[in-house]
Amino acid sequence: MKKRHIKNLAAGLIAVFAVACSATQPAPGERYVLVIHGGAGTIRKADMTAEREQAYRETLEEALRTGHKLLQAGSSSLDAVEATIHVLEDSPLFNAGKGAVFTHEGRNELDASIMDGQSGKAGAVAGVRTIRNPISAARAVMEKTEHVMLSGAGADQFAAESGLEIVDPSYFYTPERWQSLQEVLKQDSLKTTGNDSKFGTVGCVALDQQGHLAAGTSTGGMTNKRYGRIGDSPIIGAGTYANKEVGVSCTGWGEFYIRHVVAHDVAALMGYKGLGVTEATEAVIAKVGEAGGDGGIIALDRNGQMSMSFNTEGMYRGAITESGEIVIGIYQP
Amino acid sequence: MKKRHIKNLAAGLIAVFAVACSATQPAPGERYVLVIHGGAGTIRKADMTAEREQAYRETLEEALRTGHKLLQAGSSSLDAVEATIHVLEDSPLFNAGKGAVFTHEGRNELDASIMDGQSGKAGAVAGVRTIRNPISAARAVMEKTEHVMLSGAGADQFAAESGLEIVDPSYFYTPERWQSLQEVLKQDSLKTTGNDSKFGTVGCVALDQQGHLAAGTSTGGMTNKRYGRIGDSPIIGAGTYANKEVGVSCTGWGEFYIRHVVAHDVAALMGYKGLGVTEATEAVIAKVGEAGGDGGIIALDRNGQMSMSFNTEGMYRGAITESGEIVIGIYQP
Q1: pLDDT by residue (tens digit) across A153-212?
Q2: Which of A87, B58, B70, B310 could pair with B40 in a Cys bridge, judged by C-beta atoms 3.0 to 4.6 Å apart?
């Protein structure tokens, strides 16, 4: 309990002192069309090799270029979100898809959600074990069923019946994530938090040529999670939300994001109080921080203004403008 | 598709003409301390026997009296919500606990969530099969873990380890719900909606002597649901939400409630736009109706003002004031 208290206190202090990296806006006349994150947490330059940092930057750039290319060609924001997240899910660097962390039982249970801001439709899957790209399963739930959220073995079965790519659960094995689980198990067999095992979720918000927004989030959850724990990523309103004004994707300590209904709260502050996208994400991150939680939020509004706010030491993140100008960040600015 | 369209159109018309039953307020100086619902849907006096209506009224009253007694004795709003929902879960009349509907595979998979408005803490379980009172499992998740949401077999296991009452899945068998599944299967083996098989969720909001609010929701979901479908009831922000200003519990076509983040939207309209509890619930029900969804919302604010809004033909509902004055309703007013 003491340790937890200190952690919460530390998170509070970080929240107070964090300089949210959200002021970056494009040159006049330009607008952002795609924003991504690859997880927030204790990401320090001192702990990173040049090669590893390079790998992260290259993958973030590849993801941005993939979505941008689709948007340039007139594809929908939904298509751009799905394709962009595929790049991040297929990389072992992020805690989503291929790089998903392990549960207490040594399995990988993945969550994802997607929302189309224009139609207000949404889809999500939780606790799936055999779907290579959970974000596509979330989209299939949205487009092919009358449901929003499917879970567990039923969601895997649905994905298989929908013709999505099914993989053997061993596809999600990576030595690094396995090692993380062993370390957590050594410390405390029931612990999920207290280190950054809870971070690494990926997400994306896109704005297409029709002015329509979409947002998506995909994750492996927390290392050593048990009991079918579901975090904020597959929950519409918590980890993902989009309407006609703004798209939002979150990463962080999921429980705080659920309690604060973070993604919808950003949209509500904009829609009901008239806050701008930066003010709104910073206000919500501040609430999460005051409660002892940490993580990040990316948001993109219908005018191409974006925000990438976080109260952790770092967040893998990037954005691209209509003309292809890229910003990528990892650490505190 | 045509049928669906007509259904949506009908829902829209109902939404426009519905007289929300939310104007009832107590005598001056009195305040409501407990509000409940037992599901919204096509509930018509013509389809109801006097005995059946009496049974519903008696159970709703018993639930209200149970929670009221605790509140009178100085118990917390959380205790009152849990005990009140137990009465509804233990009755075969409602689609929660004992009276849960059947999935496509002929099982009962229950969902519940609870939120403490004062602390902002929350708990939920989804897709559980052996827990007699899912609302107590939701509370145990909130109080005994660092998580908010547990699902599937893991949630059942957690409940057993927490000492909650575990029952054989056959406990949830009722001939009436089994018959409902057989009828739906005869019509369309893949259909979950289109009749009122999706309704019957129970919920409660309470205000204790300390002025603290809590809200909870419990359901069996939709008859013939498949693929581990999760509705709004276990989702904080969608089916349940509480903060220091208001507590909210929802019932209805869950997918629309998730997309509209209904419970949090009520709180956001009150907190950010200054709407009263009645205005806020009516505004949100109107949005759900415009999108083609139907159902109901109950809400209770910290001043003891309550609202029971719905755009269906009926909603089992009731409220009790501090002094024990009861209102119970079933049909449109």
Answers
A1: 999 999 999 999 999 999 999 999 999 899 888 876 555 544 455 577 999 999 999 999
A2: B310
Q: Is the pLDDT of residue B38 over 50?
A: yes
- Ramachandran assignment for A324, one of left (phi > 0), alpha (psi -120 to 50 degrees), beta (any other): left
Residue A266 neighbours by CB under 8 Å, 6+ apart: A241, A246, A248, A277, A280, A281, A284, A297, A299
Is the Cβ pair A261, B264 closer than 8 Å? yes
Burial A50-81 (b: 16+ CB within 10 A, else e): eeeeeebbebbeebbbbbbebbeeebbbbbbb
Q: Chain A: residue nearest B266 by CA?
A: A268
Query: What are B61's two structure tokens?
Result: 């009253």
Q: CA quadruple A285, A289, A293, A295: dihedral positive or negative?
A: positive
Q: Tell me the pLDDT tens digit for each residue of B71-129.
A: 999 999 999 999 999 999 999 999 999 999 999 999 999 999 999 999 999 999 999 99
**Domains with residue ranges and CATH for chain A:** 3-94+109-121+198-221+230-331 (3.60.20.30)
Binary contact (A157, B229; C-beta < 8 A) = no
Distance from CA of A28 to the nearest CA of B (A): 31
Rounded Cα gap, residues A61 and A34, in angstroms:
11
Asked whether the predicted pLDDT for residue B8 surpasses 70, the reply is no
**B151 Cα to chain A: minimum distance (Å):** 5
Q: Give residue B192's pLDDT.
A: 52
Summarize pLDDT for A55-109 with one digit per residue, the tens: 999 999 999 999 999 999 999 999 999 999 999 999 999 999 999 999 999 999 9
Backbone angles phi, psi at A155, to 5 degrees: -70, -40
